[in-house]
Amino acid sequence: MKNQSVLDALSQLSDSIKLTFQLISRLSKLSFQPGSTPLQGDGDVRIELSHDIRDALKHHDDTLDSLRQEIEDVVEFGTHSQRRRDSLKDRERARIAAQLARLDEDLKQYVHNDPSLHDCFTDKPYSARSQFRAAQLSSKRASEAAKQKEREILFASLQQPTETDSTSSTPDPLAARRPQPKQLTQDELLINASTDVTSALRRTHNLLTSELSRSRFAQETLDQSTAALADLGERYTDLDSLLSNSKNLLGTLVRSQKSDTWYLETAFYILVTTICWLVFRRLIYGPAWWFLWLPFKFLLLKPFYLLLAVFGITGGSSAAVTAVSSLSSTISTQPTIRLQPSASGDRPTFRRGMDQRPANAVPVGGGGAKAGKDGQPQDPSPAGSMSQSLGQMAEASREQTQPQGEESNEAKGHKEPQRRGDGTILQERGDIPRNPKKKMWEEDVEAPKHQMRKRDEL
């Protein structure tokens, strides 16, 4: 609703309220003359005026409520729009809201200044109805007083004796034209009083009927409110169950989140540890070994051990001599184990290059993983170490004992029988056929199969 329409509506409402209060004042000052109202009923003027005032007050209440709500909406909208003054539209809305608030204040001042409208507006909404009720009672009392006065006049006229001029012989020519007062008997007076009581009882019955209808309407409203409250209680019960289920779900989610967080943190720490280990092993371990440990070992530890050995603190020389002597005695006492050909009589086949290897070398995995350039096994110990010196002394003692054994075998001059590794003497086969179930290694057949198997594995 625009501000001009709100202002026009307020002006019309003010004029209507003034007119209504004029009608209430007229009803309160209404006076009746004896005989102006019928005795069996109420006055038509008073009833019509009361109906008009009642309808006007009801209309004023409805209009006042709608205007108050409209003004509150406009003012609230204006206060919210005052926060945003960026556009011209917002400033225009703020100006309209301020004008409506100003009109509302002017209307309140006008109402407060006008004593005739002070009781019927926002301060005392039921004062107009109370004044209307007082005006109705005063007009009813005036009507009842007029009726009572009329009854008294009629009753007094009935009790006065009729004076007749019996002495005059000449009749009055105007006596027949005079209105003869109607004489009411006692029964007629009783009937009139009963009629008044009946009309009063009827009015009371009508009032009771209206009150009963209002009570019935209130009862229906109460039943509807009870049903609405029951429905609302069920909805609140459903809401409580929903909230409890939501609480349980949130608890489960929190617990699962804690466990998931623990798992993720553990996996993260393991990953970080693995990455640190890989970085250390791939990038730091090799340079640290070559540039930190080996210089520290050869520059500090070796001279320190050498000084200890020189001064005899550690006893390294006597321990080395004892170890070399025990190793040489052990090698000299143990017999040499020689491998003889198998019992089949056939000599084992050798691959190319195997005859160039030393007799004491044992080939492993591709010719020996730690073989040197000359085919000899490479010593993994550092040069000049205690273990390397012990190994050289053991090899020297073995070379000294081996030629002596060969010379003793040649001096005997006879061929020794062939023996197995466990010492069993092998005899000549002669005419004994070879075992057909015993598998023999055929180099021409098995070697290609072995190469194909290795190629498939790769």
TrEMBL record:
Keywords: Coiled coil, Endoplasmic reticulum, ER-Golgi transport, Membrane, Transmembrane, Transmembrane helix, Transport. Its main location: endoplasmic reticulum. InterPro entries: Sec20, Sec20_C. The chain crosses the membrane at residues 262-284, 304-324. This is Sec20 C-terminal domain-containing protein. GO terms for cellular component: endoplasmic reticulum membrane; SNARE complex. GO terms for molecular function: SNAP receptor activity. Residues 194-283 form the Sec20 C-terminal domain. Residues 409-458 have a biased composition (Basic and acidic residues). Belongs to the SEC20 family. The keyword Coiled coil applies. The keyword Zinc-finger does not apply. Residues 161-173 have a biased composition (Low complexity). It comes from Aureobasidium pullulans (Black yeast). It is a single-pass type IV membrane protein. It is found in: Endoplasmic reticulum membrane. Pfam families: Sec20 (PF03908). Residues 156-183, 335-458 are annotated as: Disordered. One of its GO terms (biological process) is retrograde vesicle-mediated transport, Golgi to endoplasmic reticulum.
